[in-house]
Write a structure and sequence with these properties.
about 300 residues, alpha/beta, 3 domains, 17 helices, 6 strands
Length: about 300
């Protein structure tokens, strides 16, 4: 048997509160849908120092045992309510995971810009932010929790931070003006582009993702620029010879080659086809009769042309 203590308390408070001054709600659902943190990063090993990240140090550097990442996309602004929401996420996560020490938890925010309204609400909650070592990165606290805010619009030009460009407003507005990527960044960008291509086949994707058409076009434009900036040997790597020459006219394929290079590899009986028409007409019938049937037919057609 369980005693329904909650209704007893409600009845008690209803009788004691002046109704002209207060409204009592027995139960109130605080969210319209289940709350979800955008991303959670959990450290698996406790002993030893974790490897230092080489890229996106703005986001992945200085991780705690538990790090909650709150993300605002290229077309979303950081609002005052995000500070309240983030503090609620942190407290609820500690309850869920049975954490007692807030030092085990860190908060990350990735947003286009750090807005004054977010900062104002942060200060009302006892928090503060200061510029960090990297451009566009701000360090501080939200209540008792360590907080870092990364401005994607300002951080992506820094070395090894270029992939933040893919979630920055510049990527949507000016997709062809992106940074030059190193090999690892280029490989990751290519992988992201493949993901977008797969999402495009998903009938639910365009209803789940804001600015879907812009994102699709931005990846194509940005990738075109990346390809243009690749060295020629990297562009052609892995292509078969016929793929490299596809779409070129015969004169374009031979442009820049010395005469001996143009004829290299031809069988002696086929070299005659490299002669101009006037030279073919000067050949004796006896010599032409020695040529293979296919070559003789071509020569005959050109002599009568």
């Amino acid at each position: 048997m369980r005693t329904a203590w909650h209704p007893l308390l409600v009845v008690l408070l209803e009788h004691l509160l002046p109704r002209a001054w207060y409204r009592l709600i027995p139960e109130l659902q605080l969210t319209k849908e289940p709350q979800r943190v955008d991303t959670v990063i959990i450290r698996k090993r406790r002993a030893g120092a974790a490897p230092t990240p080489t890229h996106l140090v703005s986001v992945l550097g200085g991780l705690r045992d538990h790090t909650l990442v709150h993300f605002k996309g290229p077309s979303d602004a950081l609002e005052a309510s995000d500070a309240l929401q983030l503090l609620g996420y942190a407290a609820q996560y500690m309850v869920l995971e049975g954490l007692g020490d807030p030092a085990l938890l860190a908060l990350r925010v990735i947003a286009p810009t750090l807005t004054p309204r977010f900062v104002a609400q942060l200060r009302l909650l006892g928090g503060e932010l200061s510029p960090g070592a990297l451009a566009g990165v701000h360090e501080g606290a939200l209540g008792v929790f360590a907080l870092r805010v990364v401005e994607s619009a300002a951080a992506w030009p820094s070395e090894h931070e270029h992939l933040l460009y893919t979630v920055a407003p510049q990527y949507i507005d000016y997709p062809g003006d992106g940074p030059l990527l190193d090999d690892e960044e280029r490989a990751l960008f290519h992988f992201l582009a493949q993901c977008v291509a797969r999402f495009r086949e998903d009938p639910e994707w365009r209803t789940l993702m804001k600015d879907a058409a812009k994102v699709d076009q931005s990846y194509k434009s940005a990738w075109d620029k990346i390809v243009q900036n690749l060295p020629v040997e990297e562009r052609l790597a892995g292509l078969a010879p016929e793929q490299r020459l596809a779409g070129l006219a015969p004169e374009q394929r031979l442009a820049g080659l010395a005469p001996e290079q143009r004829l290299a590899g031809l069988a002696p009986e086929h070299l005659v086809l490299a002669l101009p028409d006037d030279a073919l007409r000067a050949l004796s019938d006896e010599y032409i009769a020695t040529l293979p049937d296919d070559v003789r037919a071509k020569v005959a057609a050109r002599r009568t042309h």
